[in-house]
Design a protein that fits this description.
Blueprint (H helix, E strand, L loop, with lengths): L1 H21 L4 E7 L3 H13 L6 E4 L5 E8 L2 E11 L5 E9 L3 H7 L6 H21 L2 E11 L2 E11 L3 H18 L9 E8 L4 E9 L13 E5 L2 E10 L6 H12 L9 E4 L13 E7 L6
Antiparallel strand pairs: 1-5, 2-3, 3-4, 4-5, 6-11, 7-9, 7-10, 8-9, 8-12, 11-13, 12-13
Helix pairs in contact: 2-4, 2-6
Length: 300
């Protein structure tokens, strides 16, 4: 019996030492949400940027891993966000939280009382969860499957910005393109579109051509910022996006998942065609864009 008691005591001491000094977080929060990891990743970054006291947020090796540093008074809290896809339309978010200045005391108190640290952590995660739920209700992505990017001739400008400011870059340059074509009697030939030239998923930066489709003519204006090209047809995976064009990149992540799930190799240079003019108003939930993710060509 003494040997058994000694073994039990050693095990209990080992567990306590591990919990107090080796366990990586002071507190963990989990919740499920009806959307996919890319939408969670981007919403989390926007939410962090709009906090009264924004923290530093760093993406890990994948979009499913993020490390956020928040300051509350004299304490620095580390939020390690892990996103796990459950189904095509649901995900689980796991948040491991640690107070870098009071970690040991938190671990002692947490099992026995509802501490201010726990209350603050729950409120912070709940604030994000509520914003995420509101965002999910304002957009929709419908996967169509294999299709083709339509061909067109277009006037275009090249823009480099962040994913979140992609739509702003379009709106800033639309008057330049449309007015120049109108002044020279060039006939428009379809809705505006963008073709992404480079997408850095680590830094959320994009370089893209903002294209204004036109009927090719001899009256094309010469302008230092405007160029002309043909957008060629290519095989692609297609999705329909409904919602504010600021967040149309949500469809990019949905298409990447569809491609991975179906073993389709794609080129991460999406093409978007926009069918609504945000300046005319209307409920953004009804705005429509066609999103294409080009399929890589195979050479046999």
């Amino acid at each position: 019996m003494k040997k058994i008691s000694a073994v039990v005591a050693i095990v209990i001491i080992g567990i306590l030492v591990g919990y107090l000094f080796l366990w990586p977080q002071d507190y963990q929060i989990r919740f499920n949400v009806n959307t996919f990891p890319g939408a969670i990743n981007q919403t989390l970054k926007v939410w962090n940027k709009n906090l009264d006291n924004p923290g530093e947020i760093v993406q890990g090796a994948t979009i499913e891993q993020l490390r956020q540093t928040l300051t509350f008074g004299d304490s620095t809290h580390i939020y390690k966000w892990r996103i796990k896809r459950l189904t095509d339309s649901t995900s689980r978010v796991i948040v491991n939280i640690k107070d870098m200045d009071h970690s040991l005391m938190n671990k002692i108190k947490v099992p026995f009382m509802d501490t201010d640290f726990e209350k603050r952590s729950r409120k912070t995660v709940l604030d994000f969860s509520e914003l995420l739920t509101q965002h999910i209700d304002r957009f929709k992505v419908t996967i169509v499957g294999e299709s083709e990017v339509p061909t067109t001739y277009a006037a275009y400008v090249t823009i480099k910005t962040t994913q979140h400011k992609k739509a702003a870059g379009m709106m800033d340059n639309l008057p330049l393109l449309s007015n120049a074509m109108l002044e020279h009697g060039v006939e428009p030939n379809g809705p505006p579109l963008i073709e992404v030239l480079d997408w850095n998923m680590k830094t959320d930066s994009v370089t893209y051509n903002f294209c204004f489709p036109i009927v090719r003519s001899e009256k094309l204006p010469i302008h230092p910022e405007i160029k002309y090209k043909r957008v060629f047809s290519k095989k692609a995976l297609k999705a329909i996006y409904n919602g504010n064009y600021i967040t149309s990149d949500r469809a990019w992540y949905a298409l990447l998942h569809y491609a991975k799930k179906n073993n389709i190799e794609v080129d991460r240079k999406p093409v978007e065609i926009f069918y609504n003019n945000p300046n005319t108003g209307g409920d953004e939930v009804n705005w429509k864009a066609e999103i294409f993710m080009p399929i890589k060509e195979t050479h046999e």
